[in-house]
Specification:
Layout (H helix, E strand, L loop, with lengths): L5 E4 L13 H4 L5 E7 L7 E2 L2 E2 H13 L8 E6 L10 E8 L3 H10 L8 H12 L6 E6 L10 H10 L8 E4 L3 H14 L3 E4 L2 H15 L5 E6 L10 E7 L5 E7 L1 E4 L4 E9 L2 E9 L5 E6 L2 E9 L11 E6 L5 E7 L2 E6 L1 E9 L2 E9 L4 E7 L2 E9 L10 E7 L7 E7 L1 E7 L1 E9 L2 E9 L4 E7 L4
Parallel strand pairs: 1-7, 2-5, 2-7, 8-9, 10-16, 17-23, 24-30
Antiparallel strand pairs: 3-4, 5-6, 10-13, 11-12, 11-14, 14-15, 17-20, 18-19, 18-21, 21-22, 24-27, 25-26, 25-28, 28-29
Helix pairs in contact: 4-5, 5-6
């Protein structure tokens, strides 16, 4: 399997030196690193009386003081030779071991002068290391926006979708609003981090955070396998998302891919031709974890009905599926959903605000069929009226209890003038409270029934 470089984008504009970071925390053995330095004219700008390029130079020097010179490191700079030239991008030190002195010399020699061709630099940096079979990292240091009429967001998206194993971490110091939105996209498109630092002191913390996570050990191996667990011979398009934030944290094309993920819950979407698979998994720690995504799949189209023989129930519902041992594998929302999963038997659940129904779903290899879930439920619609028969001036507090059960907890609650409750068939006590007055009624709700009731209150 071929891996093209991982790209880290550290947009550094500030003062305090980063905390010391052990080399083992920074980079995996055998990984290439290319430092791309912004030497555009804006780097003459000052923070607390010190030029930004001097601050960046000192930060880099402190960072490189912990660097293992045996690891392959190179240096590229832009904007340092010609004013107004968007092609002013130069390789100052080749990517190789033993180049630490050359990199430091190059950083000390450049002076800010010209344009900020971020897009072209990203493309050239990827091209420089794309011929290698080893993972790679590009560290881009810059202080603001692209100034060469190009779109770094589009470039990052293209590189991510191209199959290059690319991740861009962005740290921005003292950025304006436009700068933030125009640079955050680089991290978002490539599954990296974006961190801003508004003070020189905050920069050290941002650098420490990003550097420790940017080239963390690739602890998770994604594998696309067939029904027998054998690795597929053709590539799969991957998108990995953090389930808590729904942010994409990695994108790539491969049958097998090694990626770095911090502990948490993730959803991986794999696409192989017309077959798409969604797989949920947990990262407990940074120990190696193999995640096999099975592409021997079946598809089921799910819908629901209030009771057997009734038309489809057209209300948005939440659908979830898990393995027999309780591992969540898919979640969707809608009145009807289509789910593709590796062949097998799963526990399904369809739910609304006040209703949960469990069912069993069996996915057969190569089959695409439908399953209608009987909710065994009905609807209770309620409204509050004033003494004249008009709707109440204010909202009514509605509470539904299981009738005939002393001390029973409420099964549904809402505060509105009128509302509807989707509930399992059964006997309920509906209580309406308005302006100090309380009324109640027992309701027998049959499966498929829609029961309406109005309370007339003394207050308007």
């Amino acid at each position: 399997m071929r891996f093209l470089p991982l790209v880290l984008s550290l947009l550094v504009m500030g003062g305090a030196a980063p905390s010391s970071i052990a080399q083992d925390d920074l980079i995996e053995p055998g990984e290439q690193v290319l430092l791309v330095l912004d030497s555009s004219g804006s780097m003459w700008g000052q923070i607390d009386g010190i030029a930004k390029y001097e601050i960046a130079r000192d930060v880099i020097a402190e960072l490189l003081s912990t660097w293992d010179g045996e690891n392959a490191l190179g240096l590229m700079a832009y904007g340092h030779r010609r004013e107004g030239d968007c092609t002013d991008i130069e390789m100052l030190a080749p990517i190789a071991s033993g180049t630490l002195d050359a990199v430091n010399d190059g950083i000390n020699a450049v002076r800010p002068l010209g344009k900020t061709p971020i897009t072209a630099s990203l493309r050239q940096a990827a091209a420089v290391i794309s011929a290698s079979e080893r993972p790679g990292t590009v560290i881009l240091l810059t202080d603001g926006l692209e100034t060469c009429h190009a779109d770094p967001c589009a470039a990052a998206a293209e590189l991510a979708a191209s199959g290059i194993n690319l991740r861009a971490h962005v740290v921005g110091f003292d950025l304006g609003e436009e700068d933030v939105s125009s640079l955050r996209c680089i991290a978002d498109e490539t599954g990296g981090l974006f961190i801003t630092a508004d003070t020189a002191g905050a920069l050290g913390e941002a650098m420490g955070t990003v550097m420790q996570s940017a080239v963390a050990n690739r602890n998770v191996t994604l594998r696309a396998v067939d029904g027998d667990g054998a690795l597929l011979s053709d590539n799969v398009s991957w998108n990995v998302y953090d389930t808590q934030t729904d942010d994409r944290v990695w994108i790539g094309i491969a049958a097998e891919a090694d990626i770095a993920l911090v502990p948490g819950s993730y959803r991986v979407a794999g696409q192989r031709g017309d077959t798409g698979i969604t797989h949920m998994f947990e990262v407990i720690d940074t120990e190696p974890l193999q995640v096999d995504v099975v592409f021997a799949t079946g598809t089921l189209d799910f819908s629901s009905q209030l009771a057997t023989g009734l038309p489809a129930f057209e209300q948005r519902l939440s659908w979830s599926f898990s393995t027999p041992d309780g591992r969540s594998v898919a979640r969707e929302a809608g009145d009807a959903v289509s789910i593709t999963l590796p062949a097998g038997t799963y526990a399904g659940e369809v739910s609304a605000e006040d209703l949960e129904v469990s069912f069993v779903a069996v996915f057969e290899v190569g089959e695409h069929s439908a399953q209608v879930i009987d909710l065994n439920a009905g609807l209770i619609s309620v409204s509050g009226l004033g003494p004249t028969g008009a709707a109440t001036a204010r909202h009514v507090s509605w509470t539904v209890f299981s009738a005939g059960v002393d001390g029973a907890r409420s099964v549904a609650r809402e505060v509105r003038r009128d509302t509807a409750f989707l509930l399992s068939a059964g006997t309920y006590r509906l209580v309406g409270s308005y302006q100090g007055e309380e009324q109640e009624i027992d309701i027998e709700l049959d499966a498929g029934a829609e029961v309406s009731h109005q309370f007339t209150f003394a207050a308007p």
